[in-house]
Amino acid sequence: MPKTCSEPPAYAKRNFLLRKAKRETGEVKANCVSPQLKRLSLNGPTMATRWSVLCDVAGSIDQAALQQALATAVDRVDQQMSPWKPDSDLMRLNRAAPGEWVSLPPEIMAVLARALEVARLSDGAFDPTVGTLVNAWGFGPERDDPDVAAIRVAAQAGQSSAHQRLDLDRHAGRARKHTPLQIDLCGIAKGYGVDQMTAVLQSHGVAHALVALDGELRALGTQADGQPWAVAVESPEPGRRAARGVLELADVAVATSGDYRRWLQVGQARVSHTMDGRRAAPVNNGVASVTVLAPDCMSADAWATALLVAGPSDGLALAQRMGLEALFLLRRDGRWLELGLGRFATADAAG
User: What are phi and psi of 39, to 5 degrees?
Assistant: First the structure.
């Protein structure tokens, strides 16, 4: 997050630029707030992490009401889509018998629809029906370690596409499964939560804000002084939090998916929490992280996951085909290789 009232950086003329982070500090700096506005820093707990909002607002705004509205919006997403809450709408759907229609709120219906769309466009690289695999490998609520028998059962469950396994009736607000599957929305729900908080800010008349939930962020306009919002791109190193570069954002969302935050050590192998439903196994393709820019954070979140799963070659081809702006960080012989598309194309190959 940018600091307020500090020395401004040398911004490029374009709205987006990936720059190398300063090795000695990794800090991101920002200009002072306009004297007509005040800067608020709001945050709260959700989804086993924290949401945060940095915004430039008029002095008359009701800060307590805004804080409560933001918390309510993101908590609603958690209550509907969490696989860790037995009473969530997602878990009601997961417990339903195949063929049984389940009535669902409009928010989770919108997320399911977008998840199925990205699943189709990515040829299954993004797959919201991998919940059984997630649980079998020890990343879900059912167990903390991989279970060989459960993995075998999950792998034998079939390789049909998400569209063949899940039906949505958007008009009636309901969904049904065709097979006994577990849906997992962890690759898209946080991005949707960011979009919901952005909508709350807009409804309160806020025009300058940076919204964040874990690795998903969205810039609403610029800072009040016209400068873009500056955020760090994390170096994909397990057990270490360090900035690799800086993104400058204005009216855009960004999401990063990687294999370095959540993982398990199984023998000599480090197993990623992201599942490749096509292989019925965790991702293991040399891609350390993928960062994607998109107009909304739900799309950025889903596409970052899809490109991570697709891998360096197929992922780049997919991103090009879909016209995505993406940055891949690859592991190559003890070095990092950066491959960028769109406005990330100026990123240098790095060691």
Answer: -100, 125
